[in-house]
Amino acid sequence: MRVRLGGRERLNAIILLGGVLALNSADLSSLGAIAGKLKPALELDNFQLGLLAAAPSFVAVFTTLPLGALADRARRVRWLTVSIAAWAVGMLLAGACQNFDQLLVVRLFLGAATAAAGPFVASLVGDLFWPDERGRIYGYILAGEIVGAGVGLLVSGSIAGVSWRAGLWVLAVPSAAVAWGIHKGLPEPARGGASRLRRPRRRGQAAGSAQERAPTVQEAVDESNAKPEHDLVLDRDPSRMSLPRASAYVLRIRTNVVLIVASALGYFFQAGVNTFGVVFVIASFRVSQPVATWLLALIALGGLAGTVLGGRLADRLLARGRADARMLVGGVAFVLCSCLFVPGVLSRDLAIALPIYIVATFMLGAPNAPVDAARLDVVPGLLWGRAEAVRTVLRTLAVAASPLLFGLISDALANGPRSSTKGLGYHASAHGLRYAFLLMLVPMAVGGLLLVANGRHYIRDVATAIASDAKLGAKRGAKKTPA
Fold first, then answer.
1. Which has fewest Cβ within 10 Å: 24, 95, 129, 294?
2. Average per-residue pLDDT for the chain
3. Are 132 and 326 a contacting pair, CB within 8 Å?
4. Do the domain assignments include residue 454?
5. Domain harbouring 350, CATH code
6. What is the three-class DSSP state of 422?
7. Cβ–Cβ under 8 Å, residues 387 and 379
8. pTM for the full model?
9. pLDDT, tens digit, for every residue of 279-309?
């Protein structure tokens, strides 16, 4: 991997940034993994479990935007280190809680600790890696989300058989390791890509050649003859924009709005799976919690493969001149995912459902890297942190609403009274969870169709972002040149 990615420095950056995202997903999946022990221990119903899953998102809604502004101005590596160390402390406190109210307060603290991840990681990716490789690189980094979810399921789920508290405490160890690794091993890049990491040369390509310098994204846009939207081309330093003005600007970029909506709908469904997946598998196939945990980890491998290969496919299509490749790959994958999950959710036979779930999860992971790379394409570089913060707030609202809606719908449609879904009432709520999953597939399919339909406008928005960066870069160069 070190050779393939172009050296130890690039590999370290990918592993560490992926580790940050892994901690976020491990948090939610660990809660789902220990749900079988946590529900009877604290006498929770599905709605209360959903509220615990959503609690970090409530806080993140208010803290992400200021942190996004900080990501465009401050030293990103330092702030990431602090936030991850705080997350480790939060996991230790969560395992010590004695009742629902205490655990809810700690979950709110965790939301504040992890809110920096999205804006800071996006800004660092944009300044460390080159535009035409962002889909592939994002695939590796976003694989951390799948790995983290798998670790949360396997480690916390296995240890939860002994103690649900230990299932939370154990995750403080990798978080401390990631914080130390970022502090010691991640460089703080210059703004605007001036210190991007050197990438491996293509076969037969000389250093400094035009092929190495010219981003494929710009080449594809130039070949499409797309013209920038002149009223959106920036002529003033956006780092001095107020937060409300910067937020308003990034929401005027039509493709950015479409990408935010589609991404939020995908994560909406994924959050429901992470929270209630173990409970659903136990109830549907009558297996033990350890078996359910390992089955979901196996299914998650499909998502891992989709996350890595989705970005690579989009970049290859882009290199062949398909300028809207990132929108196309993301949109088609979302639609296929929605279609494939239907027979899986309806099936009562594990031998039939398991391969369907693996393929469907592959499609669920495939849009992540192309969609995240496309957001960097359409936003000027000096606004990446705040743009990602805006996206994170809206995505966070979707993630927060998902467990609550899944819990409410599953309880409402469950066989038997609401009280029967408390504690060990797995089978009482299986019917409700099945219909909740089916209903939540519809918004994700709509998001995929929006991505495909917006492909042409994406090219124009990329041209606008390129024009803004070029104009701002020329002004910065003129200021540095003596009269």
1. 294
2. 82
3. no
4. yes
5. 1.20.1250.20
6. coil
7. yes
8. 0.76
9. 888 878 888 877 887 788 788 889 889 988 9
Question: Quick one: pLDDT at residue 480?
Answer: 53
Q: Is 208 part of a structural domain of the chain? A: no
Q: Which residues contact 389 (CB under 8 A, 6 or more apart)?
A: 64, 65, 67, 68, 69, 71, 118, 119
pLDDT digits (tens, 9 = 90+) for 106-146: 888 888 888 778 888 888 988 888 888 888 888 899 888 87
CA distance 90 to 172: 8
Give the separation between CA 113 and CA 134, rounded to whole angstroms: 27
Residue 466 lies in a domain: yes
Question: Which residue, among 2, 37, 462, has the nearest Cα to 253 in the 3D structure?
Answer: 462
Instruction: Tell me the one-letter amino acid at 123.
Output: S
Nearest residue to 124 (alpha-carbon basis) of 60, 178, 179, 80: 80
Between 261 and 24, whose confidence is greater? 261
| Residue 452 CB contacts under 8 Å (≥ 6 apart), including other chains | 327, 328, 331, 332, 335
Domain limits at 150?
Answer: 2-187+215-480
Contact status, residue 380 vs residue 320, Cβ threshold 8 Å:
no
Distance, C-alpha 483 to centroid of its chain: 47
**What is the Rg, in whole angstroms, of the alpha carbon atoms belonging to the chain?**
22
d(CA 387, CA 379): 7
What pLDDT, on the 0 to 100 scale, is given for residue 123? 87
First to last CA, the chain: 48
Q: What is the pLDDT of residue 35?
A: 76
Residue type, 358: I
Q: What share of the chain is helix, strand, coil (3-state, %, to 5)?
A: 80, 0, 20
> What is the model's pLDDT at position 367?
94
CA atoms of 389 and 65, how far apart (whole Å)? 5
- d(CA 75, CA 71) in angstroms, rounded, equals 7
DSSP string, 150-208: HHIIIIIHHHHTT-HHHHHHTTHHHHHHHHHHHHHH---PPGGGTTPPPPPPPTTPPTT
Of the candidates 166, 214, 233, 263, the one whose C-alpha atom is nearest the C-alpha of residue 475 is 233
Q: CB of 151 within 8 A of CB of 26?
A: yes
Number of structural domains (the chain) is: 1
Asked if residue 197 is part of any domain, the answer here is: no
